[in-house]
Amino acid sequence: MSTAIINTLLEKTTNFSIEETLAFLANEYKDKVVFSTSFGQEDQVITALIAKSNLPITIFTLDTGRLFQETYDVFHKTIKKYKKEIKVCFPEATAVENLLQTKGPNSFYESVENRKECCFIRKVAPLTKALKGNKIWITGLRAEQSENRNDLDLFEYDAHFDIIKFNPLLKWTLEEVQKYINDNNVPQNALHKQGFVSIGCAPCTRAIMPGEDIRAGRWWWESSHKECGLHQK
After folding, report:
1. What values do phi and psi take at 158, rounded to 5?
2. 118 is in an annotated binding site
3. Alpha-carbon span 117 to 125, nearest angstrom
4. What amino acid positions are annotated as catalytic residues?
5. Which of 81, 123, 182, 193 is the most buried (most CB within 10 A)?
6. 89 labelled binding-site residue
7. Phi-psi category of 117—alpha, beta or left, where left has phi over 0 and alpha has psi -120 to 50?
């Protein structure tokens, strides 16, 4: 069933621009299209495109409780510039309290399992609630961001969350993203100019060195595939 829907979406939007595809989805799945933003460069481009046409697409963000102040700064600038409401989703307080009481505030440094547990509580569980009941999930994923994302498709079914994902910037390069931001005066996180490319929680993100992989600054102490569970590929 999901394959047929994806093929239909690909067929109907084959010659559409990103803006036209977003408008089509918003009309085709009224009140069932959501976009998750972490205020990174890719997400800021998509927010700008949604706001530009004032599309009825719900924008939400996951506030893990461990974000950089610079992330909150760009959050504030974004809602001021675009006058677009951004829904905030928090982790369950009891789950966070239990984690800190039993394992301390920095358990994620001790093992991959502990880190994934923290990611699940602070990110995956709130995302599950935010996506529930919706039909289309728009993301800022790009193929060149990591090896795990090389085989992504423009539209794909996410079995874990039982939803169809639309990855509008899939084939964009980082340079194209940055050019759009500069050309359109899109607010961006100040950390991007300090060597931070992929920005997540403050304790788990560092700047990357010249020549390092884009994702090298995320969970840099690990040798795993460096995904938090939000995206299964």
Report:
1. -100, 100
2. yes
3. 10
4. 228
5. 123
6. no
7. alpha
For residue 182, give every residue at least 6 positions away whose Cβ sits within 8 Å of its Cβ, in sequence order, or none: none
Quote the CA–CA distance of 186 and 143 in Å, as a whole number.
22
Give the single-character DSSP code of 146.
Answer: -
Phi, psi of 210, deg, nearest 5? -55, 130
Residue with tokens 């675009």: 82
> What is the pTM for the complete model shown?
0.91
Q: What is the rounded distance in angstroms from the CA atom of residue 48 to the CA atom of residue 45?
A: 5
**pLDDT for the residue 232:** 52
Nearest to 201 by CA among 188, 213, 191: 191
Per-residue pLDDT of 79-105, as tens digits, reads 999 999 999 999 999 999 999 999 999
Amino acid identity of 196? Answer: F
Structural contact between residues 114 and 108, judged by C-beta atoms closer than 8 angstroms = yes
Structure tokens at 126: 């709130």
Find, among 131, 99, 129, 93, the residue nearest to 115 by Cα: 99
DSSP 80-137: HHH---EEEE---HHHHHHHHHHH-TTGGGT-HHHHHHHHIIIIIHHHHHHHTT-SEE
